[in-house]
Amino acid sequence: xxxxxxxxxxxxxxxYFDAEMWFYTHLESNRPKWWALPLGDKCRVLEGSTFHPIFxxxxxxxxxxxxxxxxxxxxxxxxxxxxxxxxxxxxQIK
Length: 94
What we know:
single chain, alpha+beta, two-stranded parallel ribbon, 3 helices, 32% helix, globular
């Protein structure tokens, strides 16, 4: 979820890196409305993301998006997110 501190951190990194943050969702119903910060051009919500109560968030396009973007560094946060496992495996190979 696009937490305010993560969005602000992304823009603070711009001073040093061309960083981009991708989120599965922008705002869940259990968060206060002030969490709905504008994401700007360096943060985005991935289309096609879904939530499952047991498996958490996933996105079937994540692997291809990362492959296409070809980042130098990938930092994946969260607990058990199934779609992140393939990405983590892919970037370890680089």
